[in-house]
Structure formats: structure tokens, C-alpha cells
Amino acid sequence: MSKHYNVVVIGAGTGGIMTAAQIKNQKRDASIAIIDPAETHYYQPAWTLVGAGAYDYNKTGRPMSSVIPKGCDWVKDAVTTIDADNSKVNTANSGELSYDVLVAAPGIQIDVDGIPGLKEGLEAGVVCSNYTDPKKTWELVQKFKGGNAVFTQPTTPIKCGGAPQKIMYLADDHWAKTGVKSDTNVIFATPGSVIFGVPDFAKTLTKVLQRKNIHFKPFYAISKIDVANKEVHFTNAKPGENDCVVNEGNGLSERTEGDSAYVIPFDLLHLAPPQSAPDFIKNSPLSNGTPGGWIDVDINTLQHNKYPNVFAVGDAAALPTAKTGAAIRKQAPVVAGNVVAMLNSNKITDAQYEGYSSCPLVTGYGKMVLAEFKYNNVRDSDPFLSKFVDTTKENYSMWILKKFGLPYMYWNRMMKGKM
Questions:
Q1: Where along the chain do the CATH 3.50.50.60 domains lie?
Q2: Check: CATH 3.50.50.60 for 2-108+277-353?
Q3: What is the mean pLDDT of residues 404-409?
Q4: Ramachandran region of residue 208, left (φ > 0), alpha (ψ -120 to 50) or beta?
Q5: What is the pTM of this model?
Q6: Please, what is the end-to-end C-alpha distance for the chain in angstroms?
Q7: Which residue has the higher pLDDT, 243 or 219?
Q8: Separation of alpha carbons 407 and 14, rounded Å
């Protein structure tokens, strides 16, 4: 059985819902199907705060039916294959859907099998991750009584690249308040070379690391987790750049193995798991040979480079910028406008996405740095907001924005296609 729509949207996450709502707002008569099997829609940016006991997990989710834009059909199913040459999408149980225009917003998949020992560590409760279960993170943070607290991330792209350090700052704050900090070594191990890619914000975060006495370990690429011995193994992400970082008597009981491997024992390990494009995207013509299997689109118009009636929005798009909800907020209007233009006149608009993304970097309870940037790690702070607040510095007002303002904006504006 086949059914035709003007627009088929793959994914009912932030990108899919926001874009569908904006298309519907601009072209009321457009027939739109949104394909997603999930029963619940989550506001995932709040999971950082959940992991630190500063937000109610139950308030981060709402029934999927409540966010599907009025007038759109929700196909509660999973996409199996995409036949872009014939403008068709196949689903597991609902048959075939054909389209005039396709919006691919499938999000990003988490691969807990991507690092040896990760799945076992999560199941055993010795490893935690805000990406999979922020409630468990908060449980382990509260139970922690000292030792090595290691926070790290994989070499793959991840959604919200700043999240692994946000929970670290909050946990450190909690341990300082509960008297555990004096018996704790907080370690941030990253495969990257710097704490943050945009210099103006990196300066502030470096000061935060120094103030909190956090051990910063650049070029540390996690390779495996030894669950039984509670040790995390790393390889040197850039040999020659990170020599002699393990010193005798450093208090971490860290050791080297061979010329470019390091082992750190841990009492708490928080990890952002490896992530990738969904398998059905990797295996589809939409990936078009891109490294990692991401959707091959023009980085400014978000139109597919091979299929002009296909657009991508969100984490699965092959874009050289951070994968965040803030990025989607700027991508969705470009995609929605182009989709409507394609339906009306078979051509796209002059609108351009310049790579804007934002990372609300919570540096402690009541403190936040709002890092806004665009392609090539160029700072792109909001000019109006910057008149009142230096967003490169830690601010209480930005904490209020994170905890209250952004969730309100998300549910009442973004999900309604109003911004």
C-alpha cells in the first residue's frame, strides 16, 4: 500500500517537528506526514541539569501526539529504506510513502557497543551518561565519596559537544558543597586539543578549570573500559603532541602502556557514548558517500547535493558545526522556506544558514556561559543580548535562561514553528 504526501518528514525530534510546523504555518494546504515510532518527545538539553539534580526528568518529556503539528499525519513507524531516485520512503509496518519533497531529520544514534566495556559498565552501574540515563548520573554523583571522577567523550561527532564538561562542572560543585571535593580528583579527558573551539569562550572555561583544580587531559581518545578493575583506557589522539603528560606522583595513579596509551583508574566515569548517523541513513543514497554516512547537503541551503527535492535538518546533516537544538532553530526556517518554495515553484529561496550553533555551558549551579558561534568557529553572539550581558563570562542570568527561559521557548515557540 502506498500513500502520497506533498512533504514527508523523517523524524519527530526537534528538527522534524519545528520544520513541519513552519511549513504548515506557511502553506496550510500542504499534506505532511511525520514518521517516527517514539511515543514520547524529550527536551534533551535539560538532561544536563537532571544529571545534577537541578531539573525534574519527568518535565523533559511530553507525549509525541501533543507536539505533532495540527493538520500533519503522524506515521508511528520506523523508516527502513529510502528510495530517493523515485521519491519514496519505506516503513516497517505502514507500507510505502511517496513525496514531492522529503525533509530528513532522523537525529543521531547512540552506539553503546562502540567502546569495549561501555555497555557492561552502564549495566553494572559503574559508568553513567547523561546521554542515556541522566537519572542514573545524578544517583552516582550523590553516591560518590571521593577518588578519581573521570569525564570523557569519544572521537565521533556527538550531539551537544559541550555536554560532557557541563555535567562535570555541576558535579564538581555538588561535591564541593557536600565536602567530597577535598578527596576528589576531577579529570576531563578529551580527544580534542582545547577545552572549547572558540577562543573567547575557551579563555573563560580555562579559568573555570583552574579555579576548580580540574585535571585537563587533551588528546585522550577513549579506547576501552575495564569494568572489573574500574579502569578507563585511552590512546594518544595525536602522537607527538601529548608527550610526557603522565608524571610520577601525580595523585591520579595514572600509568602508561606502551608509547601512546594511558590508563586511569576511576571511582566515577561519565561518558558521552560514540554516536553516528542512523543506519538506515548510512545505507541510503542520502549519505552519498560522505565520511560517517551523514546526509550530503549544501551547508548553506541544506538542500541535498544530488536530490534537489530532499533537505536535511538537525544532527544527521553533514554540516561542519555543532549538533545542537540551537543550530536547528536557525536551520529550520531555511529548510521550511525552501520546501514551500519547491512546492510552489520548484526552486529554492535565497535564504542561507551560516552555521550558527550555541552551547549553553553551565559551569556550576547558578552559572552559565552562552557560547554562540557559526562556521569556522567564529563567535556569533546575539547583538541584542550582548548589549546587556557579556555572554563570554559566567552569568547567573544565563543560568536562569538555561533552566527556565529555554525550556519555555522550546515547548511554546519552537515546537509551534514560531521561531
A1: 2-108+277-353, 112-274
A2: yes
A3: 96
A4: alpha
A5: 0.94
A6: 36
A7: 219
A8: 12
Cell of 2: 502506498
Residue 244 catalytic? no
Question: What is the percent of the chain with per-residue pLDDT over 90, rounded to a whole number?
Answer: 92
For 46, the grid coordinates are 535539560
Which CATH superfamily hosts domain 112-274? FAD/NAD(P)-binding domain (3.50.50.60)
Mean pLDDT of 344-354: 96
Residue with cell 536547528: 328
- Which residue, chain included where needed, has cell 565519596? 145
pLDDT in tens, 220-246: 999 999 999 999 999 998 876 655 455
The pLDDT-based confidence of 250 (bands split at 50, 70, 90) is low
Q: Is 72 a catalytic residue?
A: no
Average pLDDT over residues 392-411: 96
Distance (Å, rounded) from C-alpha 318 to C-alpha 298?
Answer: 9
Is residue 252 a contact partner of residue 186, using CB atoms and an 8 Å limit? no
Residue 244: what pLDDT?
A: 46
Q: Work out the pLDDT band at 147, boundaries 50, 70, 90.
A: very high
